[in-house]
Amino acid sequence: MLILLRNNAGSAAISQARSIAKRLLSTSAGNTKTETSPATEHYDIIIGGGGLVGTTLAAALVNNVTLADKKVLLLEGAPPFKGFDPTGPYQNRVSAINRNSVELFKSINAWAHIEQARYKPVKQMQVWESNSDALIQFQHNNFASDVACIIENDLILDAVYSRVKELSANVEVLNRARIECVGLPGKTGAPHSQVKLQDGRIFTCDLLIGADGANSVVRKEMGVDVFSFNYDRMGLVATLDLNMEDDCDNSVAWQRFLPTGPVALLPLSTKQSSLVWSTTVPHAKELLAMDANAFADALNEAFCRQYPRVDLADKALQGLNALFGNSGAQHQRQYPPQVCGVQDGSRATFPLGFLHASSYVCNGAALVGDAAHRVHPLAGQGVNLGFGDVRHLVETLAAAAYAGFKLGDTQHLVKYERKCLLKNVPIMVGVHGLHTLYSTDFSPVVLMRSLGLQLTQNLPPIKNLFMKTAMG
């Protein structure tokens, strides 16, 4: 009897031990699964990529009354933005902001922040040829309005981030967030778009917006055709010191088309301007290697040097000006202020290229900014096209949400695409055409472009049309 009781007690103990061990193993397995497969978090909209366009889009979305209740996640690959010091030296990355972009900033209550810091209105712009006397000048009658505003990129970011922080209840910013891969409903069969970061975190959303630049991961997953090429040119930027009197107003933007590419001075303050010089790769490297004095001399020479002339173009311009009763373009031309120095460490270069996606949208995704299009900086339209995308996308999503449709519904997203294509394509083709026309000194081409430029200068309706297009 005692043996039987002992056997029963032993069996019960063994059974209890096994049960405890089984529970421990089950718990351990559950913990391991949680670590390797993190839970996903869902958002209404995820913006892949920050920068000027992506961050402005985040602010515009949550600032819109119809979209204010949407949960937005901004994935920014860079570290947290450190802010902008309006008393510090001028930075070398600036943008020529047109009227439509200014209105966008006003609509999200970011423009007052920029006004209180610093920006430079452009009252006039002069563009002229190096192989003839052809030129064109843009300004409003009696300089009543600005042609553009020159604003430092970090100041724009500072203004927009201030709005994002004020609206932080509905928008979350995740810094150092690198996208590893994305999944879209049309390809995965899942009901939502999905984003996986390089650190393993996974998010889902109703609409994924690619604002991740020319090498967009979102665009690649969408599978749209892309037309792109490099210009084999470099853009060189710098902050310049000018030799100007204290009572002079530095409010003119200057651009001259050289045989190697356009060179432009954009006003920053009374005695400083920003440089954007498009040139060949070897020449850009040479300019970077120069000391400050040699660089200033090379820049002054670029604006004033007499390049080989095309006699036929000069004679044709004389006849055209006589026909319109003008004494000659050379008597109207002004020259930019002398450059006397360059700010230390401000010279930098970047490659120039062209890119356009055949489609901006698909089920559950949309593209904005450089992820959809990239242009030559000669007309200052790149970031303005991106801000135009922001305006059209927010309008389209607000209309869709008000009508009760899903944010990622292609039926409504194509309306955004249609608006953008009608706006972007003509400008992109025009900018590329200008680059092509001014990349040669072949006499017939010089004749054609000189006559076209001077004819536009002499016909105010045509000139005003170009100016309105550039100004938005």
From TrEMBL:
It is a peripheral membrane protein. Its EC number is 1.14.15.45, 1.14.15.46. It is an enzyme of class 1 (oxidoreductase). One of its GO terms (cellular component) is extrinsic component of mitochondrial inner membrane. Its cofactor is FAD. GO terms for molecular function: 2-methoxy-6-polyprenolphenol 4-hydroxylase activity; 4-hydroxy-3-all-trans-polyprenylbenzoate oxygenase activity; FAD binding; oxidoreductase activity, acting on paired donors, with incorporation or reduction of molecular oxygen, reduced flavin or flavoprotein as one donor, and incorporation of one atom of oxygen. The keyword Flavoprotein applies. Pfam families: FAD_binding_3. It catalyses: a 2-methoxy-6-(all-trans-polyprenyl)phenol + 2 reduced [2Fe-2S]-[ferredoxin] + O2 + 2 H(+) = a 2-methoxy-6-(all-trans-polyprenyl)benzene-1,4-diol + 2 oxidized [2Fe-2S]-[ferredoxin] + H2O; a 4-hydroxy-3-(all-trans-polyprenyl)benzoate + 2 reduced [2Fe-2S]-[ferredoxin] + O2 + 2 H(+) = a 3,4-dihydroxy-5-(all-trans-polyprenyl)benzoate + 2 oxidized [2Fe-2S]-[ferredoxin] + H2O. InterPro entries: FAD-bd, FAD/NAD-bd_sf, Ubi_Hdrlase_CS, UbiH/COQ6, UbiH/COQ6_monooxygenase, UbQ_mOase_COQ6. Keywords: FAD, Flavoprotein, Membrane, Mitochondrion, Mitochondrion inner membrane, Monooxygenase, Oxidoreductase, Transit peptide, Ubiquinone, Ubiquinone biosynthesis. The keyword Transferase does not apply. Pathway: Cofactor biosynthesis; ubiquinone biosynthesis. It is found in: Mitochondrion inner membrane. Residues 44-312, 357-401 form the FAD-binding domain. SUPFAM superfamilies: FAD/NAD(P)-binding domain (SSF51905). HAMAP family: COQ6_monooxygenase. Component of a multi-subunit COQ enzyme complex. Belongs to the UbiH/COQ6 family. FAD-dependent monooxygenase required for two non-consecutive steps during ubiquinone biosynthesis. Required for the C5-ring hydroxylation during ubiquinone biosynthesis by catalyzing the hydroxylation of 4-hydroxy-3-(all-trans-polyprenyl)benzoic acid to 3,4-dihydroxy-5-(all-trans-polyprenyl)benzoic acid. Also acts downstream of coq4, for the C1-hydroxylation during ubiquinone biosynthesis by catalyzing the hydroxylation of 2-methoxy-6-(all-trans-polyprenyl)phenol to 2-methoxy-6-(all-trans-polyprenyl)benzene-1,4-diol. NCBIfam families: COQ6, Ubi-OHases. This is Ubiquinone biosynthesis monooxygenase COQ6, mitochondrial.
